Amino acid sequence: MITLISDPILKKKLSGQFPFLEGAEPSFVRLFFNSTSIVHLEADQPICQQGMQCSHLALVTKGSARVYKIGENGREITLYRIGPGESCILTASCIMNDRPFPAFAMSEQPIEALIITTADVVCWSSDVPAWRNYLFRLISDRLSDVISVVEEIAFRRVDRRLADYLLQRTEITDDSIQITHQAIASDLGTSREVISRILKDFEQQGMISITRGAIYLSDRQCLKKKSAE
Question: pLDDT (tens digit, 9 = 90+) per residue, 54-70?
Fold first, then answer.
């Protein structure tokens, strides 16, 4: 479902989510809201497939999306996630360079996003410093995320990465996480069998307990030690 942006209260809220609007010229802010619309997408829906041409750039206002690659062996690896106030740098890059999307993107939670046409993305990048700086900052932040993923896979043992992953994902969930072994494997760039084996080892050592579709952290301190080894 697509919604036009006309409500002044909504415009003010969106300007708070995207600071480049607060620092831009009033004429551009008016043009921005006249040129964009809001789209809604349910969870677990494909957003972009590898090889597709990008026709729009989405600025996420609610929910989250996952951008990932699939290897020849079918194994997935998460490149980064996109949350409120963010956008996809691969999409922006493909628009600016007229190239097909080199990965896959899927909604993880129900998404609400602002949609911008490719023509506006290109035009504003040339003519509007506030918009251009927003894109450059996104690229810088996302590049750091992707480099971290490469470093983790290349130089850090999977058991240490898994311990750190569980600690981070349960910071605000009261020591429990609802997730499948395959989802963890996709995030960490390894196989489900490897994740299942390490989780079983963690359970035997008393660090976690596993139920169907959920993991409970029994000993955070021990997991922290494992993560820091």
Answer: 999 999 999 999 999 98
